[in-house]
């Protein structure tokens, strides 16, 4: 089953998207953020919280912001202190917290000896490499589509129970949904947590606990179960780094989602996203992008092209971060109104279009959510159609639809019903796509072409006016955001001449060599 | 006239019900017996466990049919419903024109950590929802939508600043009763600031009922399939009532 597309248009879309991403990259390269700096500290091995429960990485960055010059970056100050005092980064952080050291005292005209940080970075990098090796050992052949379910009880121990059950019923990927509100915290909470709303806190300890449980169930099931969390919000790169260290396999990672749905400042989150994607590329974490969500506020039929345009842009942002296509889990969704005539055909057109535009990307396909209602029986039918669309258009990361989507975060039984549905459809439609063709001029063919053309037009406009302007106009999801507004803007700063980010430099070098 | 009813399967008052639930038991004869016994404790008899599915070693999902023994006299049951006449957009506009010599200000937000805006937008924005225009399109109504993730304090501050007549609050995330905590906090804030009587305060969301709203100290609550005209109908009548009383 193939669409006959005009690949000149496809190439032109890529070109536009490349220009759009480059415009933003110029801004990114000139700036850093408090989250980026905290990530460097984490990579240097700083962990834990002080007696007031403030993470040491926040203590250090806040200290520099208030007493020294954050524009020089944390690496500058840490290298200077290490040169003089022979302390570990952790010891420096603790000393700052106890106020026995003041980094402003280490400001001097000499260039910092950044190499002094290398041994500390190497320790963390070795951890990440070891995690990659473990993952590689496990992964033989991945079956497609991979069945992805969420757990969201708020309590990590309860989440583990639910995750184990889902894995035993055939889930391939477990996502721990984050609690409402976490994306706006400008720090990452610490330790195991048991209280959350609509999700569970993303903490390094929660990552570790869940990964351990999934490793055990992977062994008993003899199948690697992947773990997903969210590197989004105000702590994007920090959470990406924690995920890399604790062997998360996939992370949601999309600035556009944060800008549109959480009102996070665009400058802040584009800078954060770049670093987090470099880390993900280095750690071989598949990212998931969030354009599927546009269709929860905008109509899926009228705005289908906005999703395609956004996928092109996200692809280019990922390329800027040296990410291979095989890690780009670009998002899209089956959010069409079930009352629309031929809704299924339109969705096949859209899903097949995404498939062909991004042939190497492990596409993330979201189930119906917006048009799910309390009618769970009707909801099961919607999910069935979605499952069929997913198999026959060969989607990769298949988020399972829950019959109770409109009611609550999933019960254990909801997930089992969803898995049964998907398994049934995979089996029933296994070789179906290979036996049919899409007729030229048919409804599906026409629809795909229209959407592609509209996406091209939209990308042209964005290229001309710039992505910031587009976001201000509310093109995506009908939500308007301004460059100078939104959460986290006060954490963005222009880099000084002496600024260095050794983590990004080392990771990019390693990615370029292909030896990572 | 009292009349007793029971659920209907295919014969009047046969009491047939279907039920599904998960028990932390193994999926075997003992597990099924547990499911049957459990249904019986819910006053269901002739229980048939028609499906049992293993969720993991310790959990089994059951589908059960049976006969409910309890009966009910519907005439004794009262529903809490918003009690006001429902008017259409033109009638509401005429009502405001006739009864108030000013523009009425409605201020709304999705509050706390809640990032869902589709519900509040459905009520407030120009476009409305399901073919029903939102408050922004109404003559004599000034609709100010503050968006999502708005703190209670910020909402109240804005309401005071704009001299709002009506405050609209949307809550979508209800897991672990987070909405109850947040809604209770807002009422407490109003009372602490001595402002409860300054506004008509209305809540809404997929899991919000009028009953819950009243219980929490709000003037009204609206759930699914309620649109701007329902909300405005109630609000203008409640406002008039309130202003008559001062
Ligand atoms: C769209 C959507 C999103 C979008 C929201 C986009 C946006 N800008 O709003 C996105 C993708 C961003 C999203 C995110 C999340 N979501 Co959501 N989302 C939904 C979804 C699919 C549809 C909701 C919707 O828009 N309905 C349509 C509107 C029109 O309906 P409504 O809100 O009920 O509004 C009507 C009435 O209730 C009433 N009304 C509503 N508000 C008001 C206010 C007043 C004053 C009045 C008078 C009337 C009124 O009028 C409206 C018209 O009739 C539902 C699932 C579903 N199908 O319901 C999940 C759902 C609501 N989400 C859920 C969750 C948990 C989340 C997250 C917390 C997940 C997470 N952990 O990250 C995050 C939110 C994070 C946060 N900080 O809040 C859960 C909530 C579970 C629960 N009961 O607690 C649901 C039910 C999905 C699920 N099963 O898990 N979500």
Describe this protein's structure.
The complex is a heterodimer of chains A (516) and B (246). Chain A is α/β, with parallel strands linked by helices. Chain A contains 20 helices and eleven strands. Chain A folds into two domains: 34-122, no CATH class; 141-446, D-Lysine 5,6-aminomutase alpha subunit (TIM Barrel), CATH 3.20.20.440. Chain A has helices spanning 7-30, 34-43, 56-67, 74-85, 89-97, 118-138, 156-168, 204-221, 236-245, 255-262, 266-283, 294-297, 304-320, 343-357, 376-392, 412-428, 432-435, 443-465, 467-473, 502-513; strands spanning 31-33, 146-151, 173-176, 226-230, 250-252, 286-288, 328-329, 331-333, 364-366, 397-399, 492-494. In chain A, helix 1 crosses helix 13 (304-320), helix 7 (156-168) runs parallel beside helix 8 and helix 18 (443-465) packs across helix 19 (467-473). The two termini of chain A are 37 Å apart. The mean pLDDT of chain A is 96. Chain B is 33% helix and 23% strand. Chain B has helices spanning 29-41, 89-99, 118-124, 152-161, 178-192, 210-216, 228-244, and strands spanning 16-23, 44-56, 59-68, 104-110, 141-145, 166-170, 200-204, 220-222. In chain B, the strands form two sheets. A five-stranded parallel sheet of chain B has the order 5-4-6-7-8, sandwiched between helices. A three-stranded antiparallel sheet of chain B has the order 1-3-2, with helices on one face. In chain B, strand 6, helix 5 and strand 7 form a beta-alpha-beta unit. In chain B, helix 2 packs parallel to helix 7 (228-244). Chain A binds chain B through residues 152, 154, 161, 164-165, 168-169, 180-181, 184, 195-198, 261-263, 296-297, 374, 406, 408-409, 411-413, 416, 479, and chain B through 20-22, 53, 55-57, 59, 61, 112-115, 117-118, 121, 147-149, 173, 175-176, 178, 206, 224.
